[in-house]
């Protein structure tokens, strides 16, 4: 591997003790609390798709699928268990990268202590920067929803890793002249994983353009760097190529251009982005969303972090009285705008697990909270020093001591490097170049952590310890076996060649079918059983997931001819079918296979007799309260037989 390609990795490993210890600690914690196997939600689907190299629900997630396939080849663990540990590793690595990114963000705000004192404003020792960066990573690491995604098979752990890594690479370019090609390569991979990362691309580009303008670097480096995003984006070719091979799980069948665009643009999930309440209620609804999100942040980060963030923003005015305001404030300001934009978007995305989507903005909250707390600590120290002595004055251009700050350093020539700022030498001459404000470890001496910041940081960590313990207890999936038991018991109770109809109640359909998909496709159990999800009746691609013979599956034309379709004005659906469509499906398949269902609805009474085969207890495990209503109702499996005429 070339020196150019490994330089970002080497930068992450420089002076590693604190960052590595943080990574190791949380890797152990997340691995300990990781689920033993499949869990409720999308876990079963992603594990089954990875094991079979299939196509997942929109937007397809090609990178996660391919990486997951490699991981599922590891022996001595089930596919879901392996992917649970992968989430734990991604989340722990996210904290390490976030620690390094926060060091860079703090370096962008405050020059090293010696240079700051020379300019007549408070400095930020490297020891304090390390403590604050550790604080930021710690707040994210103990966030309940972040933990919940670190211990199960889901895509958000890897998404958060990309979020932290992209900001790290961009801040490294901003401060240290890192290569933009590294950033765009990772950006391409992140988009091949989760297209929601597109929400943050405008803010990445704004930071780049600001960097070009403020530093005088040539913008000619941007177009060639953009090409490095293509390898990651090319991974989307997996979707049509693999779909053409007809895998066992082929959501949307993106083997043609129409279906491919439908899948990557979000499919039916686009209908959940609802702006109608905003149009109906206006400012009142905006206020409701703001209050809800503030309460969400307090719940996820505790009130300490929110207060630190607000207080830090208030202290920015005092802190930025020094020179170079735009250069120092731009990264944090754009990060804050990215957080607001992402939070606003997810507030209008009305899916059942909406709370989970906000986790993609939480790395930004953690980094900004560290900046806020740092500004408060340094502001307190600055005020105490001002009371003791006046600020030193730096000479003006005419040599008079009537200006607090020297003029900004002239921009370097196009294509060149920015010259280092000069600080007074011991003899008072400005002939010593300061080291650049890199986010490295402390150099000792004057960079040591002062007593006041040390006390404040220690107090904050101790205050949050009970919150951390409660978060891990609340989000631990160590004993979460509900979905595993459910899938195993249902598959064991079904005879070979039977047909199982699930999804009779829309809210719980995913939690009924995904554990069964996992048992069937990932573990190879019940291979002769046909599982039909009623919620896919109006999806043409779903017919090709079923056996070619021995199953009758209604087309839209069949249901329309029988008068069983209804036109509705739902935001995410325009056509629905009634319960009689389910009766028709069962009647047509009764001569072909033994029929079973996981629920019973009144529409079955005139046509079928039922026999309870088994009843599986529904164990909610670690799912949050708002999600429990989406679990299968009672776990009862019924054998259906047509009623005989009286």
Q: What does this molecule look like?
A:
This protein folds into two domains: 379 residues, no CATH class; 161 residues. With 646 residues, it is of the alpha/beta class. Helix 2 packs parallel to helix 7. Helix content is 54%, strand content 6%. The chain contains 26 helices and nine strands. The radius of gyration is 29 Å and the shape is elongated. A hairpin with a 2-residue loop joins strand 5 and strand 6. The strands form three sheets. Strands 4-3-7-9-8 form a five-stranded mixed sheet, with helices on both faces. Strands 1-2 form a two-stranded antiparallel sheet. A two-stranded antiparallel ribbon has the order 5-6.
- Main sheet attributes: strand count, strand direction, barrel closure: 5 strands, mixed
How much helical structure, as a percent, in the residues?
Answer: 40-55%
**Rounded average pLDDT:** 79
Radius of gyration from the alpha-carbon trace, in angstroms: 29 Å
Domain count: 2
Shape verdict: elongated
- As residue ranges, the low-confidence spans are 1-13, 112-122, 396-446
Distance between the termini: 79 Å
- Which structural class matches the secondary elements? alpha/beta
* Tally of alpha and pi helices: 26
Number of strands: 9
Q: Characteristics of this structure?
A:
two-stranded antiparallel sheet; about 650 residues; single chain; five-stranded mixed sheet; alpha/beta; 2 domains
Q: What is the topology?
A:
Blueprint: H1 3-13, H2 17-33, H3 43-52, H4 62-72, H5 79-109, H6 113-118, H7 126-141, H8 144-150, H9 156-176, H10 180-193, H11 201-215, H12 222-226, H13 230-233, H14 238-243, H15 257-264, H16 276-281, H17 283-319, H18 325-347, H19 354-357, H20 362-388, E1 422-423, E2 432-433, H21 451-475, H22 482-493, E3 499-502, H23 509-522, E4 530-533, H24 556-561, E5 565-570, E6 573-577, H25 579-589, E7 595-597, E8 608-615, H26 625-628, E9 636-642
Helix pairs in contact: 2-5, 2-7, 3-4, 3-23, 5-7, 5-8, 5-9, 5-20, 7-20, 7-21, 8-21, 9-10, 11-18, 17-20, 18-20, 22-23
């Amino acid at each position: 591997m070339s020196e150019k390609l490994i330089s970002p990795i080497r930068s992450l490993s420089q002076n590693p003790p604190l960052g590595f210890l943080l990574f190791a600690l949380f890797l152990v914690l997340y691995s300990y609390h990781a689920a033993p196997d499949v869990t409720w939600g999308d876990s079963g689907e992603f594990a089954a798709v990875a094991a079979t190299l299939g196509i997942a629900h929109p937007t397809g997630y090609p990178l996660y699928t391919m990486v997951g396939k490699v991981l599922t080849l590891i022996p001595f663990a089930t596919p879901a268990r392996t992917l649970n540990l992968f989430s734990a590793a991604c989340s722990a690595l996210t904290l390490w990268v976030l620690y390094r990114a926060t060091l860079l963000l703090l370096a962008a705000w405050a020059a090293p202590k010696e240079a700051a004192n020379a300019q007549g404003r408070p400095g930020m020792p490297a020891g304090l920067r390390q403590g604050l960066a550790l604080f930021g990573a710690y707040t994210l690491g103990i966030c309940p929803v972040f933990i919940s995604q670190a211990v199960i098979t889901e895509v958000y752990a890897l998404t958060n890793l990309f979020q932290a890594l992209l900001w790290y690479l961009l801040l490294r370019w901003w401060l240290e002249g890192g290569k933009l090609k590294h950033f765009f390569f990772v950006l391409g991979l992140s988009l091949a994983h989760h297209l929601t990362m597109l929400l943050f691309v405008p803010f990445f580009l704004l930071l780049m353009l600001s960097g070009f303008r403020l530093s005088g670097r040539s913008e000619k480096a941007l177009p060639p760097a953009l090409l490095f995003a293509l390898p990651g984006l090319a991974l989307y070719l997996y979707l049509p190529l693999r779909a053409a091979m007809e895998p066992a799980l082929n959501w949307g069948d993106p083997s043609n251009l129409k279906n491919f665009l439908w899948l990557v643009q979000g499919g039916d999930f686009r209908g959940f982005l609802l702006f109608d309440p905003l149009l109906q209620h206006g400012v009142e609804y905006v206020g409701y969303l703001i209050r809800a999100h503030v309460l969400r942040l307090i719940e996820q980060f505790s009130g300490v972090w929110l207060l630190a963030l607000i207080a830090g923003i208030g202290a920015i005015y005092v802190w930025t009285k020094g020179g170079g305001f735009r250069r120092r404030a731009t990264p944090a300001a754009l990060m804050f705008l990215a957080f607001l934009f992402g939070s606003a978007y997810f507030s209008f995305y009305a899916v059942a697990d909406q709370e989970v989507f906000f986790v993609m903005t939480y790395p930004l909250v953690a980094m900004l909270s560290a900046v806020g707390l740092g500004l408060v600590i340094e502001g307190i120290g600055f005020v105490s020093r001002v009371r003791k002595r006046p600020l030193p004055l730096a000479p003006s251009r005419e040599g008079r001591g009537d200006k607090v700050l020297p003029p900004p350093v002239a921009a370097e020539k196009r294509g060149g490097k920015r010259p280092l700022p000069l600080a007074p030498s011991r003899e008072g001459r400005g002939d010593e170049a300061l080291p650049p404000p890199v986010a490295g470890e402390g150099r000792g001496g004057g960079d040591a952590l002062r007593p006041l910041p040390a006390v404040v940081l220690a107090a904050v960590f101790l205050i949050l310890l009970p919150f951390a313990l409660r978060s891990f207890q609340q989000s631990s999936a160590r004993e979460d076996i509900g979905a595993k038991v459910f899938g195993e018991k249902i598959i064991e109770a079904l005879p070979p060649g039977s047909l199982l109809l699930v999804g009779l109640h829309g809210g719980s359909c995913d939690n009924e079918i995904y554990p069964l998909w996992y048992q069937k496709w990932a573990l190879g159990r019940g291979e002769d059983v046909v599982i039909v999800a009623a919620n896919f009746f109006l999806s043409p691609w779903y017919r090709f997931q079923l056996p070619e013979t021995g199953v009758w599956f209604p087309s839209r034309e069949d249901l329309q001819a029988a008068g069983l379709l209804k036109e509705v004005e739902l935001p995410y659906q325009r056509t629905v079918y009634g319960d009689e469509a389910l009766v028709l499906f069962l009647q047509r398949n009764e001569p072909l296979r033994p029929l079973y269902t996981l629920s019973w609805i009144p529409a079955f009474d005139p046509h079928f007799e039922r026999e309870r085969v088994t009843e599986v207890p529904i164990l909610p495990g670690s799912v949050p309260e708002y999600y429990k209503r989406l679990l299968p109702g009672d776990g009862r499996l019924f054998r259906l037989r047509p009623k005989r005429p009286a």
